[in-house]
Structures are given as C-alpha cells and as structure tokens.
C-alpha cells in the first residue's frame, strides 16, 4: 500500500492519449479534496476553449470550475493559499511548468497535473516528459482503440493539419492502439484492418 505524504507537498501526473479519461480523473481527485474541505484551484490554458471559459470538462460531461491562463507563470501568481492545485491540458504549457510545479510542491501543496504524454506524431509532448520524472505519483491512462478494442495509448489525428497543437474532439482525433495508429494518416483515409500482420512477418 502506498503511503500518502504528510507535512509536505507532492506532484501527481495523469498522462495518456485522447479520450483516456485524464481530465475526468483530475476532476475526481480535486472533488475528493473539496469533500475533505481542502482549498483547491484548477488552471487550464486559454487555448483549450472546447467546453467553457471558466471550467475544465471531460468527454463524459464532468465539469469543474477553473481559471484560464495565458502564461504558465500565472499559476504561481494565482495559486494563493490553495492546498491543492490542479492543472489540466498541461502539454500546452511551457517547459517552465516543471519548475512551477516543483515550487508549488516545495511550498507544501498537492499538485495534480493532467495532460497528453505524446503528440499526434508519437513524440513526447511539451513539459510532460520532465513532469513524469519529477512526480511522486504517475498514472498512465489508457483509452479503447476504436478499431479493435485493445487498450489505446495514442491519439490518431483524422484531419490534415501539420500543427503540433490542434485542439479538437472526436471529429479531429480517435484513440488508437499501437497496431492501428498511423501518424501519416489524415482525413480518415487510413486502411482499417480487423487484424494486424503476423509479428514474424515484421521481423
């Protein structure tokens, strides 16, 4: 059984692909802290405006009031006396987020961060890799592959756009497993095979 730290702060990271329930898990943890009468504040980058300007939202419909920020440094300025600090869509924030999370944790706060660990090309996304190294607790959230039903850890982009940052939902992305993920596919033109090739044929 993992012991929860006492008399200190710490960092928790919830990482995974699109539709894996990262924000839903962040909301669950923050709400539990609220039930425990802890003071909380949640931040999200302004670029994420899919649900509301003043709340984070999960694909399942969960909502939690949040503060929009334009610059990562605003987190330190606005965290105030909150005991728990939540940060959603962390991949869109700069590398200085790592230092800020460390500063908050060193000040005795519980820091809960959720974000994509890989971009649509399968490359580490923004500050997430470094955050995983600094966190005391890490959860890898998995979705379900829309092609075969296997556990999915990759975000398949469905539209033709080379920008690394492209905020979207089911019209722009799907969750895919290793077998059915294709970073070169666009606009749903990837061939959808019910079964993959024999592993021996790939070696």
Low-confidence stretches: 187-203
Assign the CATH superfamily of the domain at 10-141.
P-loop containing nucleotide triphosphate hydrolases
Largest sheet, in brief, is: 6 strands, parallel
Using the coordinates above, name the CATH class of the domain at 10-141: Alpha Beta
Which bin fits the share of residues in helices?
Answer: 10-25%
What does this structure look like?
There is one protein chain. With 203 residues, the protein is an alpha/beta fold. The protein has a domain at 10-141: P-loop containing nucleotide triphosphate hydrolases (Rossmann fold, 3-Layer(aba) Sandwich), CATH 3.40.50.300. Helices cover 20% and strands 25% of the residues. The strands form four sheets. Strands 5-2-6-7-1-8 form a six-stranded parallel β-sheet, sandwiched between helices. Strands 3-4 form a two-stranded antiparallel sheet. Strands 9-10 form a two-stranded antiparallel ribbon. A hairpin with a 5-residue loop joins strand 3 and strand 4 (63-65). Helix 3 (97-106) runs parallel beside helix 4. It is globular, with a radius of gyration of 18 Å.
